[in-house]
């Protein structure tokens, strides 16, 4: 390797180590099982993924739990270095750097057992009551109908409340990843027979770690985090971690 290239690599590593000498300040939100949750093992599946990726690179970190909207805003204002897990949107793209995907969710419609709703039914759902937690960004096809006034959104703090309100008849449907939706019903002690998940998915959305573009060490955080995530994937530890969490979720007793 030419001496000039070697010197550049050494300098880059030194600058990165210096930038990440202080712990990375993380924040996430509760009630997003099995992905994040204060009461979940290791704080949830994606909390453990994020921690393991940072540990791969020997990066110290701290983790706080805040309401979703507050944690997002405090990250943007610099109180935290990074937040997770979030989908990519044009608005967020302008404000944040995105990690490689932590996990890809498939969004489905959840309704009461006797109320069959599929994606093809969306144009005829005028006036339906849609439950989606505060601070969550709906899929584009749903947001368009909200903007047009075709759907009525109700935004409680978490998905468990959406599951409860759905079964009480106060809301008509919610949208979430299969694992999230089924876990929400388990958490409120509801048998699977009382709800229905759409056969087709509305969208596939990767979830990411976000670092504000204004953060002076943001690029270094994303670079090192991605390297740690790549190492997790290559070793097989990532898949084993996911399988363990999803198996725990499937066997959880309400």
Q: What would a concise description of this structure say?
A:
This protein has 254 residues and is α/β, with parallel strands linked by helices.
Describe the structure.
This protein has 254 residues and is α/β, with parallel strands linked by helices. The chain folds into 2 domains: 21-104 and 205-250, 3-Layer(aba) Sandwich (D-Maltodextrin-Binding Protein, domain 2); 105-204, Periplasmic binding protein-like II (D-Maltodextrin-Binding Protein, domain 2). 41% of the residues lie in helices and 21% in strands. It has 9 helices and 10 strands. The protein has helices at 3-19, 45-56, 68-76, 90-95, 140-147, 159-168, 178-187, 218-235, 237-250; strands spanning 24-28, 61-65, 82-86, 96-98, 103-112, 128-131, 151-154, 173-177, 195-197, 203-212. Strands 1, 2, 3, 4, 5, 6, 7, 8, 9 and 10 form a 10-stranded mixed β-sheet that branches. Helix 2 links the parallel strand 1 and strand 2 (61-65). Helix 2 packs across helix 8 (218-235), helix 2 packs antiparallel against helix 9 and helix 6 (159-168) packs across helix 7 (178-187). The radius of gyration is 20 Å and the shape is globular. The model is unreliable at 7-12 and 250-254 (pLDDT under 50).
């Amino acid at each position: 390797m030419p001496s000039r290239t070697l010197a550049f690599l050494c300098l880059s590593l030194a600058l990165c180590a210096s930038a990440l000498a202080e712990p990375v300040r993380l924040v996430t939100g509760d009630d997003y099982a099995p992905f994040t949750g204060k009461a979940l093992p290791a704080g949830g599946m994606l909390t453990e993924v994020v921690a393991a990726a940072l540990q791969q690179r020997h990066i110290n970190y701290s983790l706080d739990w805040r309401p979703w909207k507050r944690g997002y805003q405090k990250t943007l204002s610099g109180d935290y270095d990074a937040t997770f897990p979030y989908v990519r949107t044009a608005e967020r793209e302008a404000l944040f750097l995105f990690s490689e995907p932590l996990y890809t969710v498939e969004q489905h419609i959840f309704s009461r057992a006797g109320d069959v709703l599929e994606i093809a039914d969306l144009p005829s759902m005028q006036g339906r009551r849609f439950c989606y937690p505060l601070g969550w960004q709906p899929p584009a096809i749903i947001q368009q109908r909200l903007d047009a006034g075709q759907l009525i959104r109700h935004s409680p703090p978490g998905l468990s409340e959406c599951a409860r309100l759905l079964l009480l008849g106060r809301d008509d449907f919610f949208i979430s990843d299969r694992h999230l939706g089924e876990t929400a019903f388990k958490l409120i002690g509801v048998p699977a027979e009382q709800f229905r998940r759409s056969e087709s998915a509305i969208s596939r959305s990767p979830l990411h770690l976000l670092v504000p573009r204004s953060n002076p060490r943001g690029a270094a955080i994303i670079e090192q985090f991605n390297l740690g995530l790549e190492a997790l994937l290559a070793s097989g530890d990532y898949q084993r971690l996911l399988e363990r969490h999803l198996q725990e979720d499937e066997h959880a007793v309400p």
